[in-house]
Write a structure and sequence with these properties.
This protein is α/β, with parallel strands linked by helices. The protein is built from 7 helices and 9 strands, in the order βββαβαβαβαββαααβ. The chain has helices spanning 33-43, 57-63, 81-93, 112-121, 149-156, 164-169, 182-187; strands at 5-11, 27-28, 31-32, 48-53, 70-73, 99-104, 127-133, 139-148, 192-196. The strands form 2 sheets. The chain has a 7-stranded mixed β-sheet with strand order 5-4-1-6-8-7-9, with helices on both faces. Strand 2 (27-28) and strand 3 form a beta hairpin. It is globular and about 40 Å long. The N and C termini lie far apart (34 Å).
């Protein structure tokens, strides 16, 4: 896809299930994980990175070197990933990019090669997502996800106040407070291209104690 791409790095969660504080601060190669993810996104071809912080944002800002990153603090991070998605995508769109790439902070296996492959697969008016094969060989959609800018706007939908009850009454047409853009993607499969990146990464998240091996 021609033109600039702004990456949105979702890093606002408290990491409660893992129990090691904000995932942005997980140690990886001697530095906070968020620093590595920013470097990967830039090395993969993104023009700029918007990092969305929330839980422990003051600690993250104090510990991490984010000089080449635009920071957006989501005051409603505790209401679900959808609030951070909205916060980050709105900040990204303010730069007038051709596309917006959404990535997660807790995927240390993300590489510049994965980012570059997804960017190369992007097309105007479409969405490209990295795909990873399961043990059974099924290709499943993962992150990062590249939205044409016009579709990034559509994915936001109306601001339903980030109330799960209000969102349900609105028919879950766009961003779900708990899941980001998943409901939009599921509602528009005809717009989505899943790009096999299984030869480059496995797409695993650091969610449990058993996943901490991914940081080694």
């Amino acid at each position: 896809m021609d033109g600039t791409t702004t990456a949105v790095l979702l890093a606002a969660g408290a990491g409660k299930r893992l129990g090691h504080g904000p995932k942005a601060l997980l140690p990886f190669r001697g530095r906070p994980l968020i620093e590595h993810q920013v470097r990967v996104l830039l090395a993969g071809g993104c023009t700029r990175v918007v990092a969305v912080l929330g839980a422990g944002h003051s600690e993250v800002l104090a510990a991490a070197r984010l000089q080449n990153t635009e920071v957006a603090v989501n005051p409603r991070w505790d209401l679900g990933m959808g609030t951070s998605y909205r916060c980050g995508v709105q900040a990204a769109l303010a730069h007038g990019p051709a596309a917006v790439l959404v990535a997660l902070v807790d995927q240390p296996g993300l590489s510049p090669a994965v980012v570059a492959r997804v960017l190369a697969a992007g097309q105007p008016g479409r969405i490209a997502a990295a795909g990873y094969r399961s043990a059974e060989g099924r290709l499943r959609r993962g992150h990062p996800v590249l939205f044409d800018a016009s579709l990034a706007v559509q994915s936001l939908g109306p601001d339903a106040g980030y109330s799960a009850a209000e969102h349900a009454r609105n028919g879950k047409q766009a961003v779900d407070p708990d899941t980001g853009a998943r409901s939009f993607l599921e509602a528009h499969p005809e717009l989505l291209d899943v790009i096999d990146c299984s030869d480059l990464a496995d797409g695993r998240d650091v969610d449990t104690e058993g996943d901490l091996v991914l940081l080694d």
